[in-house]
Design a protein that fits this description.
With 169 residues, the chain is of the alpha/beta class. The protein has nine helices and five strands; from the N terminus they run αααααβαβαβαβαβ. Strands 3-2-1-4-5 form a five-stranded parallel sheet. Helix 6 links the parallel strand 1 and strand 2. Helix 2 packs antiparallel against helix 7. The longest helix has 14 residues.
Length: 169
């Protein structure tokens, strides 16, 4: 696997076939950053344990992951730690009355920026940076963590922002 530790492009190809804009954004990020030492250096400098691992990258998966938790999210303030490209945050926003989506990887934030114009509702706030830097400022009813990497650190900071934490995986 490359220095940036990106998921192999072929793993997510089928899901991305239905979303050409997201696919184009991921292609650009993979082409520009995969295997670059600057990606590894960035994650070391910012102490991000997930190291560019994208977990939720399509609307169907996001919908299926949120479905069992809808009642806990309904009309509440929710913070998602490690928001990736924002698919889960957009789905959470269908139920919550306020959503803070926090992502520290500039590649994923860049991709989500392209979706902001078409899909971001007014009550979803996207925060680019480390959750540890805003955990004393943001207080929510529920925190959501959906990750396969950096799990312990994300759960720790999520508990500082909300009394209830939903761990998706």
């Amino acid at each position: 696997m490359a220095i940036g530790r990106f998921i192999p492009r072929e793993v997510i190809e089928a899901q991305l076939a239905t979303d050409p804009e997201l696919s184009a954004g991921l292609d650009a990020v993979y082409e520009a950053l995969e295997g670059r030492m600057t990606v590894e250096e960035y994650h070391q400098r910012h102490m991000t344990g997930s190291l560019g691992v994208l977990t939720v990258y399509d609307k169907t998966t996001a919908r299926n992951l949120v479905k069992p938790h809808r009642a806990k999210l309904l009309n509440r303030c929710v913070v998602e730690v490690g928001a990736g490209v924002g698919m889960l945050a957009l789905e959470i926003a269908r139920y919550a009355n306020k959503v803070f989506a926090i992502e520290s990887d500039p590649g994923w934030s860049w991709i989500f920026t392209h979706h902001l114009y078409a899909a971001k509702p007014p009550h979803l706030t996207w925060i680019f940076g480390r959750a540890e830097e805003v955990c004393t400022i943001i207080k929510a009813d529920v925190a959501v963590v959906a990750t396969h990497s950096g799990r312990d650190a994300m759960l720790r900071v999520a508990r500082l922002m909300a009394p209830e934490v939903i761990e998706i995986y």
